[in-house]
Write a structure and sequence with these properties.
The chain has 20 helices and three strands. It is globular, with a radius of gyration of 22 Å. A three-stranded mixed β-sheet has the order 1-3-2, with helices on both faces. α17 packs antiparallel against α18. A hairpin with a 3-residue loop joins β2 (about 100) and β3. The longest helix has 17 residues, at about 40-55. The protein has two domains: about 5-255, no CATH class; about 265-365. It has about 375 residues and is mainly α.
Length: about 375
């Protein structure tokens, strides 16, 4: 099975070995970082990374979840200060709470982050933060500090960056133990980088119509959840060092802004979260969890709970139960492309060839741009 690492190493070596002129229209960094990795170099690396991403078993192959993250990411990116920067967003199958950025605007989001977030603005806050790292060219600037090192060393840093950002435990497997420790220290974002990414991320969130208060709120939730569990901090906190001072700085910036807005959350987020939860553990345990949430009224979206039950029932081939939940959804919530995908999957599972083609045609007529 291919991994994400060898291609990144070779591409980074090739990219930094050949001097390339800055792409027209892209802002210069005002330092020597562009002489090490130009925007065009970053894009070359990004293209190679994405080729390996699509071939990797670590990446979630679900068009609805990936399209949701891609749409959300590009909505935020459209409000970033760098209008020329290209972005690629994808979802990693990993229950840890993490997200990471790589050269060329490649941003990965762990499934664990989507599950842990309470609302769409919290996810937008993390994505805005990662976009901030990209548009401020923090990765290129970190590599530029090593300008006196060999090309191999700089390429190794790019390799370690991918390994450490996607899963910190893999760093030792990608490099020798001695090298891994020194490289990790070199690629960790500095406090200045983190504050800068927070500031840019907040601006992006607000411009895109999200509730900026969600960023410090989510950071506080992560910090409180691990305060008494030393060594068990979420991966996002290990790769993005979080201090009380930094949270206070973000909250002060939000409060100084003064214009609070209640973001209109898209129904897609809660459905995506329910879809992920429906696949955890056994089908029966997932069904029981969703039903308990309904009984206790412990949910942000009632339709999403019924959607999760339907998916879990489909897992155990309880087509009658899944159809019952589908009927509830169609009667009690607005039209949704993910509901139509559910309907087609139920019919396919039932192998009713007379209805399958008609259902797909009807769904495509309603949602011609929905990949699933």
């Amino acid at each position: 099975m291919r991994t994400l690492y060898p291609i990144v190493l070779l591409t980074a070596m090739a990219a930094v070995a050949v001097p390339v002129a800055l792409a027209d229209g892209l802002p210069e960094l005002g330092d020597y970082s562009a002489t090490v990795m130009s925007p065009l170099d970053e894009q070359r690396i990004a293209d190679e990374i994405m080729r390996d991403v699509y071939a990797s078993s670590q990446v979630l192959e679900d068009p609805e979840i990936n399209d949701y993250i891609d749409d959300l990411g590009h909505r935020l990116a459209a409000n970033s200060p760098d209008k020329y920067q290209r972005f690629n967003f994808f979802v990693v199958k990993d229950n840890s709470i993490n997200a990471f950025a790589m050269p060329g605007g490649v941003i990965g989001v762990h499934t664990g982050l989507l599950i842990a977030a309470n609302n769409e603005s919290e996810v937008a806050g993390v994505l805005g933060h990662e976009i901030g790292h990209v548009v401020q060219h923090h990765l290129a600037r970190m590599l530029a500090k090593q300008k006196n090192d060999s090309v191999i060393s700089m390429a190794t840093m790019a390799l370690a960056l991918l390994a450490a950002r996607s899963n910190p435990q893999l760093t030792g497997g990608a490099l020798t133990a001695a090298t891994a420790n020194s490289i990790q220290k070199q690629i960790d974002y500095t406090r200045e980088h983190e504050r800068e990414a927070d500031r840019v991320g907040l601006q992006i969130m607000e411009s895109a119509g999200f509730d900026a208060r969600a960023m410090p709120s989510f950071f506080e939730t992560l910090q409180k959840g691990t305060r008494f569990s030393e060594g068990s901090a979420p991966a996002f906190l290990r790769t993005h060092p979080l201090t009380s001072e930094r949270i206070a700085d973000v909250r002060n910036r939000v409060e100084q802004g003064g214009s609070y807005k209640v973001a209109q959350e898209s129904p897609g987020f809660q459905f995506v979260k329910a879809k992920l939860l429906s696949g955890i553990g056994t089908a029966d345990s997932a069904i029981n969890t969703f039903r308990y949430n309904l009984q206790e009224k412990s949910y942000a979206s009632e339709p999403a709970q019924h959607y999760g039950i339907a998916l879990a029932m489909l897992r155990k081939n309880d087509l009658a139960g899944a159809k019952q939940e589908l009927d509830w959804l169609r009667k009690n919530t607005s039209a949704n492309a993910m509901i139509e995908t559910l309907a087609t999957n139920i019919i396919v599972a039932g192998r009713d060839t007379r209805l399958i083609e008609q259902q797909y045609q009807d769904a495509l007529a309603k949602y011609p741009d929905h990949r699933a």
